[in-house]
Amino acid sequence: MTVQTAVAPPALRLQLEQPDDAALVDALIARAFGPGRHTKASERVREFATFAPDCSVCAWGSESRGSPDGKGAGRLLGAARMWRITVGGEPATFLGPFAVEQGERNAGFGARLIARACEAAQAAGESHVVLVGDEDYFSRVGFSAAGGREVILPGPVDQRRVLVRALKADAGLLSGAVGPR
Ligand SMILES: CC(C)(COP(=O)(O)OP(=O)(O)OC[C@H]1O[C@@H](n2cnc3c(N)ncnc32)[C@H](O)[C@@H]1OP(=O)(O)O)[C@@H](O)C(=O)NCCC(=O)NCCS
């Protein structure tokens, strides 16, 4: 007789980014992208966009980083930041940077981070999430280039990489220039 042992999914806590997390998130992003690897268009958006901590998510592993209270805050495994923008004057959110620590990839953490960040944006009443990325990856988590084809970013960008996910059933097509909110 074969005894089947259920394999538990890797422990992961998804939490909104707190002010104290910023330095760890910045360091993870720097490791993931290397210097100067952000697309110019995304960086320009973040220069004028408003950070949305209520929609930005950190993924923590269970491994303790040795906090003095003995509880252990865990190790940061990934992060997804969100920003408030407008597109053609309509409110929207912008996702990025988004990264998972090198040794932790391909375990579904990225997809779970995106799902949680979109859930938080939806709960905050947002109707669209815009990002610049590979459709091959982001189409798995609800984004499409079709939704982004009329979104004008500040600076040169391959329009096929401008992706949008609608968060409401009646959300219309975003159209126009990306601006501050
Ligand atoms: C993109 C990233 C966040 C994905 O994190 P992850 O936790 O590995 O993602 P998931 O586990 O949800 O998905 C992994 C799957 O996506 C695929 N994938 C990863 N990046 C991809 C890309 N750019 N294009 C197409 N597929 C991609 C993997 O090959 C894997 O495929 P499989 O499920 O068929 O094996 C991670 O690779 C990363 O941090 N990369 C460096 C930073 C980066 O490029 N961020 C996105 C910029 S917009």
Keywords:
alpha+beta, 9-stranded mixed beta sheet, single chain, binds coenzyme A, 9 strands
Strand content: 25-35%
Distinct ligand kinds: coenzyme A
Given the C-alpha coordinates, what overall shape results? Answer: globular
- Rounded radius of gyration (Å): 17 Å
Mean pLDDT: 90
Q: List unreliable stretches of 5+ residues.
A: 65-72
Query: Can you write the helix and strand succession as a string?
Result: EHHEEEEHEHEEE
- Which architecture does the CATH hierarchy give at level 2? 3-Layer(aba) Sandwich
Largest sheet: 9 strands, mixed
The domain tally reads 1
Classify the oligomer: single chain
Q: State the distance separating the first and last CA atoms.
A: 63 Å
Count of strand segments: 9
CATH topology: Aminopeptidase
CATH class: Alpha Beta
What's the arrangement of secondary structure elements?
Layout: E1 13-16, H1 22-33, H2 40-48, E2 50-51, E3 57-60, E4 76-87, E5 90-100, H3 109-123, E6 128-132, H4 135-138, E7 151-152, E8 162-166, E9 176-180
Parallel strand pairs: 5-6, 7-9
Antiparallel strand pairs: 1-3, 2-4, 3-4, 4-5, 4-9, 6-8
The structure holds coenzyme A.
